[in-house]
Amino acid sequence: MKALATALMVTATLVGMSAAHADGKTREQVQQELQAAKAAGQVTFGELDYPPAAAAQTSMTRDQVQQELQSAKAAGQVTSAELDYPPRAAVSQSGGKTREQVRQELAEAKARGEYTFGELDYPPKGK
Asked: Which helix or strand (DSSP H or E) is residue 30 part of?
């Protein structure tokens, strides 16, 4: 029985080895393919590089991109830090109320009892 088990193990090992070389590539060919894949950015190392970054495809030239950036900066659409966010051009100034109008509305709401402060005055008594 022991001889039969040994024979089966040897057979399984040989079948596995032949399956590994079934594609007919040599070690050097596999290493060359690996180097080509690394050069093309198709191989990653570790979790942070997965999935590999795809190369960006664009039809614009470098000069066109720089010109577009300059026009966006001139229009106020580009910020350089957290303090400039959101860009001034993105903030809508039309159709809004002035600070004085908002303060007047707040004072009127307080006078009517519609404005409360804190959790103890909720819901407002004026409603």
From this structure: helix 27-39
Cα 127 from Cα 124, distance rounded (Å): 6
Instruction: Give the CA distances from residue 110 to residues 118, 122, 126, in Å, rounded to whole numbers and listed in that order.
Output: 14, 14, 9
Cβ neighbours of 115 (radius 10 Å): 15
What are phi and psi for residue 40, nearest 5 degrees?
A: -85, -5
Residues of the chain whose pLDDT is less than 50? none
CA distance 5 to 2: 5
Question: Who contacts 52 (Cβ-Cβ below 8 Å, separation ≥6)?
Answer: 41, 42, 43, 44
Give pTM, 2 decimals: 0.30
CA–CA dist 122, 118 (Å, integer): 7
User: What does the H/E/C string look like for 2-19?
Assistant: HHHHHHHHHHHHHHHHHH
Q: What is the pLDDT of residue 67?
A: 94
Q: What is the 8-class DSSP label of residue 47?
A: S
